[in-house]
Amino acid sequence: MAVAMTVESGLAAHFKQPEGPSVPGVEWLVRIEHEGRIHHARVRALLAADASAATRKDEAYQAQTTMQYLAESIEQGWNPAEEGEHVIHIGNPHGQPAEAARPAQSARPWWRFW
Known about the structure:
This protein is of the alpha+beta class. The chain has helices at 53-57, 59-75, and strands at 4-17, 20-34, 37-47, 86-90. A four-stranded mixed beta sheet has the order 1-2-3-4, covered by helices on one side. The N and C termini lie far apart (69 Å).
């Protein structure tokens, strides 16, 4: 079954997480043509903590990974007509080394009143 997908828009932001600090990512709006109908799906693609700088800048890779996720979901039986919350975590492409996780920023300011 052929499914045509197009990224219509993306919003890059830091998204609040209930279990800790906000995480950078992109919320993609994807147009899906499935079984003769047009549907839209929103996918929040969060970047893994060890994602390299190149992965963080590569919007084409992030969009492709998002559409691959949706295609696999459809193959597994998900129907795009069903509303759902889609959240994925994007890491580095296979074979690309990970960077060390960025340390959390200190709560103390770098300046001081004397």
